[in-house]
Amino acid sequence: MPYVLVSTQIRLETGPTTVGDEYSDPLIMNYLGARKTTMLGNNFSEYHVDEPPRMVLDKLEKIGFRVVSMTGVGQTLVWCMHKETE
């Protein structure tokens, strides 16, 4: 999968960081050390890491991902990462 969304709450910019949804590539999630969680009341799962977004972005860059865009949505920061297919 060539795209990854990374997000965090502004007040939590030191972590945790959301790094994927239930359909994310398990190899990438394992590389990031992410854990899959389902919040009470949600019918979907997300992957989270305890590290701040900067560390997650650094790790993804090491395996070929680049930031395509970044935005703030309310109190959430979101980075869209892309990796060229080989």
Automatic annotation (TrEMBL):
GO CC terms: cytosol; nuclear membrane
Key words of the record: Cytoplasm, Membrane, Nucleus
InterPro entries: GFRP_sf (IPR036717), GTP_CycHdrlase_I_reg (IPR009112)
Localisation per UniProt entry: Cytoplasm, Cytosol; Nucleus membrane
Keyword check for Membrane: yes
Main location: cytoplasm
Organism superkingdom: Eukaryota
Protein family: Belongs to the GFRP family.
Name this protein carries in UniProt: GTP cyclohydrolase 1 feedback regulatory protein
Lineage of the organism: Eukaryota, Metazoa, Chordata, Craniata, Vertebrata
